[in-house]
Amino acid sequence: MGWPEAPETSNTLGWSELRHGQLIEVLDSDLIVSRGVVDDFTSDRQVVWLRLSYGTGRQVFHQRDGWQLRAVRGTP
């Protein structure tokens, strides 16, 4: 029995490219600090709410805080 395949990551995502239901990682200096599905965002896409992976709740991130976003292909 093998390990499940890890989702593939892609390049850094611009905040303006966010889509509802998209699986993303939040990075700080290229270190993953969070992963989840885009639950909502403001109309100017300066703030995003993630439904965190593994049922650990919901978290908000502000672009002005310097977070980087990275799209993940695969199942949340």
Helix and strand layout, with pairings?
Blueprint: E1 8-13, E2 23-28, E3 31-41, E4 47-52, E5 58-62, E6 68-73
Short description:
Helix content is 0%, strand content 53%. By secondary structure, it is mainly β. It has a six-stranded antiparallel β-sheet, with no helix packed on it.
How does this model look, in words?
This protein is mainly β. The chain has one domain (8-73): SH3 type barrels (Roll), CATH 2.30.30. It contains no helices and six strands. The chain has strands spanning 8-13, 23-28, 31-41, 47-52, 58-62, 68-73. A six-stranded antiparallel β-sheet has the order 1-6-2-3-4-5, with no helix packed on it. Strand 3 (31-41) and strand 4 (47-52) form a beta hairpin. The two termini are 22 Å apart.
Keywords, please?
76 residues, mainly beta, six-stranded antiparallel beta sheet
Number of domains: 1
Give the class-level CATH name. Mainly Beta
Give the helix proportion (percent range). Answer: under 10%
- Report strand order across the widest sheet: 1-6-2-3-4-5
What is the rounded Rg? Answer: 12 Å
Distance between the termini: 22 Å
- In terms of DSSP E residues, the strand content is over 45%
